[in-house]
Design a protein that fits this description.
By secondary structure, this protein is mainly α. It has 5 helices and no strands. About 80% of the residues lie in helices and about 0% in strands.
Length: about 190
């Protein structure tokens, strides 16, 4: 019984990793869609100004931190997890400094939880700086990756269940998965 349980756990770990990856890609796409929807719904010119200001501040702060702090650490080989967190905090502090108290208060009303938004936005800008092919291609790639990961996870799970149940040997089991992606603009 203990060996069977280990086989089940060993089979489930890759599936869980794939599901987490797919969920992350879906969450990023959802966050982008909801942010775009929120901006369309708000026709207040001042709110849009603050939202644009916040995005610009995050981009400036991350670029500045990357240029002055991160690049130096990477060139010397000292970019550790602790230094990564320090760089994140430096970027966050710089954003708040650029925006000022009035803008932060207004953005808190717009976004609800500005702290969560700023943390997520900093991570997004860092990722975008690492991968220069952002925009619609990145959204399409994330959607495709999520669909592919979900289909692979389904295939692995179905095959594993069949193998463990003894219904079909691994060489005879076949699971066909059709991947359908939506690349149109929403």
């Amino acid at each position: 019984m203990n060996g069977t349980m280990q086989q089940i756990v060993s089979a489930c770990v890759p599936v869980l990793c794939l599901l987490i990856t797919a969920g992350g890609a879906y969450a990023v796409a959802l966050l982008r869609r909801e942010t775009a929807k929120l901006q369309k719904e708000i026709d207040n010119e001042t709110a849009n100004k603050y939202m644009d200001m916040a995005v610009d501040a995050v981009e400036q702060a991350v670029a500045s931190t990357a240029q002055t702090f991160v690049d130096a650490l990477k060139s010397s080989g000292g970019f550790t997890k602790e230094k990564q967190l320090e760089a994140f905090q430096k970027s966050r502090d710089k954003v708040l400094e650029i925006l000022g108290d009035t803008a932060v208060a207004a953005l808190n009303e717009i976004y609800g939880d500005f702290d969560a938004w700023i943390d997520t936005k900093i991570e997004q800008v860092c990722r975008d700086l690492k991968r220069p092919d952002n925009g619609e291609a990145a959204t399409t790639a994330a959607t495709t990756a999520a669909a592919t990961a979900a289909s692979v996870a389904t295939t692995i799970a179905a095959t594993t269940v069949q193998q463990l149940a003894g219904e079909a040997p691994a060489s005879e089991s076949t699971v066909e998965v059709e991947i359908e992606t939506d690349t149109g603009n929403n």
